[in-house]
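Complex 138.
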Amino acid sequence: MTARNLLSSIAEGAMRGAMAGADGTDEETAKAFAVKVLDQVLGAGSAWASSGFTRASCPSCGEGYDSEAWHLAVCPAAGRQMLRPGDEVRVFGLEKLPQLNGKVGQLQRFVNAKQRWVLRVEEKDMLFKASNLEKVKD
Ligand SMILES: [Zn+2]
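Predicted structure with zinc ion bound:
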């Protein structure tokens, strides 16, 4: 049995357990329960998520989540608001490089390893923390 099959079996088992536990448990509820079980056993957002058992994941930092509102509070890619690749943002609050405050650029991607956004400003890519970026209102 491959690891992939094993993970699928665990997910299915957890779902079946949830559905057998209470009358009228629908598939959504059972699935949510299975996700919680898998997170406890394997760690949140680990490999089981790619084993064919899908749930929502953050398009910016890539972490899986059950509740988008909850994730927003902990997402390393979110500043004052949730930020997404392609967003136009303004730099603010920099103390070491104050000359960059007020610059506007387009978000390229979030680099998890550095916990920073790549922002293209005046044809150059630079790294910024989400807490120093705010969306430009259109
Ligand atoms: Zn995120």
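Residues 58, 60-61, 63, 71, 75, 77 surround zinc ion (CB under 6 Å).
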